[in-house]
């Protein structure tokens, strides 16, 4: 848990320092229901290329690392599950794994969509962007206990 917290702190802290040094435009309304780095960057009246590049780097490196760790974990789980003696036990374990994968996909797909539409999806309607951003923040924690 401490390693996960340190990773988050080390990756996210530079965003705060980088944004705090930039000048903001008079319009300071974030058109979302929460404060996201790219939404704050849209309020800046200066060149934000470095911030945007760092944001893409963080988004892809975190997603890539998580995908690698999750894949290794599931390969180990699958090796163990396939070694179970009964068919019922294997099916039950596969059902549990499938629900975990669905929850992860419910987080990562809308999250990557949100991160990428801030940068490249200038024609995506604002309501779609806000809805998917809220989806990736709210749905996975709600589905986790289920």
UniProtKB/TrEMBL annotation:
Keywords for the protein's UniProt record, in alphabetical order: Membrane, Olfaction, Receptor, Sensory transduction, Signal, Transducer, Transmembrane, Transmembrane helix
The record's listing under InterPro entries reads: GPCR_Rhodpsn_7TM, Olfact_rcpt, OR51/52/56-like
For this UniProt entry, the molecular function terms from Gene Ontology, in alphabetical order, are: olfactory receptor activity
Coiled coil regions, renumbered to chain: none
Q: Name one GO cellular component term.
A: plasma membrane
Q: What SUPFAM superfamilies does the annotation carry?
A: Family A G protein-coupled receptor-like
Give its localization: Membrane
Per the record, the domain of life is: Eukaryota
Q: Does the keyword Membrane apply?
A: yes
Q: Which residues form the G-protein coupled receptors family 1 profile domain?
A: 1-146
Q: What is its main location?
A: membrane
Spell out where the chain crosses the membrane: 55-81, 93-115, 127-143
Decide whether keyword GTP-binding is in the record: no
- This chain's protein is named Olfactory receptor family 52
């Amino acid at each position: 848990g401490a390693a996960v917290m340190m990773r988050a702190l080390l990756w996210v802290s530079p965003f705060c320092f980088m944004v705090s040094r930039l000048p903001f435009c008079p319009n300071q309304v974030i058109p979302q229901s929460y404060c996201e780095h790219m939404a704050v960057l849209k309020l800046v009246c200066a060149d934000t290329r470095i911030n945007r590049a760092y944001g893409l780097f963080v988004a892809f490196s975190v997603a890539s690392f998580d995908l690698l760790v999750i894949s290794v974990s599931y390969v180990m789980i699958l090796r163990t599950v396939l070694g179970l003696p009964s068919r019922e036990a294997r099916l039950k374990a596969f059902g549990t794994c499938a629900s975990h994968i669905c929850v992860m996909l419910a987080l990562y797909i809308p999250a990557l969509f949100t991160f990428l539409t801030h940068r490249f999806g200038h024609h995506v309607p604002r309501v779609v962007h806000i809805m998917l951003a809220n989806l990736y923040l709210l749905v996975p924690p709600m589905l986790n206990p289920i």
